[in-house]
Design goal:
- GO terms for molecular function: L-methionine:thioredoxin-disulfide S-oxidoreductase activity; peptide-methionine (S)-S-oxide reductase activity.
- It is an enzyme of class 1 (oxidoreductase).
- Keywords: Oxidoreductase.
- The chain is of the alpha+beta class.
- It contains five helices and eight strands, in the order βαβαβαβββαββα.
- The protein has a single domain, classed as Peptide methionine sulphoxide reductase MsrA (Peptide Methionine Sulfoxide Reductase, Chain A), CATH 3.30.1060.10.
- It has a six-stranded mixed β-sheet with strand order 7-6-1-3-2-8, covered by helices on one side. Strands 4-5 form a two-stranded antiparallel sheet.
- It is globular.
């Protein structure tokens, strides 16, 4: 199953694994670096952003290091299978990508700055892979929580596409879709949360193109 065609082709809802009505594992209460709750409740005034940029171990660290980020957690998003496990997602039979949920203070770090960090931390032109990591679970994605986020994400994509083309890179394959009821975020198993804090010498497959993303190309608010 691990080497099926679904490593590089998304399953249809009919082909996806059935899943389960509840999580099959517990999620830790607090962030090991920031000390704040992973699953909430979150303080008033904070906002949520969801990103997929390859293996979520290194991706999560990129965001928790940013000033103004209150908490981060990793999970699975954009697929069909409810409450999947890591092994199921890696099989390619759920349709999810590995995602990072970022809870942030927009008064300290605007959404546009998170978008810049997102674009510059990976190669968004690679389709169902990120470097040597191959599979639909490594695809680039932004799941938005408001029309303003959607507009800002699309504007930043268009600006970064121009910068990438100028530098000789291919087209962006990032999917930008609402994080609505059809694309819920399912938290990952506890051992994946803040993995590189628990395992400082652990694997990190995150690497950008070296092309700077323009800032100020989209509304800063959500």
């Amino acid at each position: 199953m691990l080497f099926s065609r679904f490593k590089t082709q998304l399953p249809t809802p009919e082909e996806a694994l059935e899943g389960r009505p509840e999580r099959a594992f517990a999620v830790p209460d607090r962030h090991t670096v920031l000390g704040n709750p992973l699953l909430g409740p979150y303080p008033d005034g904070l906002e949520v952003a969801d990103f997929g940029l390859g293996c979520f171990w290194g991706a999560e660290r990129k965001f928790w290091q940013a000033e103004g980020v209150w908490t981060t957690l990793v999970g699975y998003q954009g697929g069909h299978t409810p409450n999947p496990t890591y092994e199921e997602v890696c099989s390619g039979h759920t349709g999810h990508t590995e995602a990072v949920r970022v809870v942030y203070d927009p008064a300290v770090i605007p959404y546009t700055s998170l978008l810049k960090l997102f674009w510059e931390s990976h190669d968004p032109t690679q389709g169902f892979r990120q470097g040597n990591d191959v599979g639909t679970q490594y695809r680039s994605a932004i799941y938005t929580h408001s029309p303003a986020q959607q507009q800002a994400a699309e504007a930043s994509r268009d600006a970064y596409r121009t910068a990438l083309h100028t530098s000789g890179h291919g087209d962006i394959t990032t999917e930008i879709l609402p994080a609505d009821d059809t694309r819920p975020f399912y938290p990952a198993e506890g051992y994946h949360q803040q993995y590189l804090d628990k395992n400082p010498a652990g694997y990190c497959g995150i690497g950008g193109t070296g092309v700077s993303c323009p800032v100020g190309v989209a509304p800063a608010g959500d």
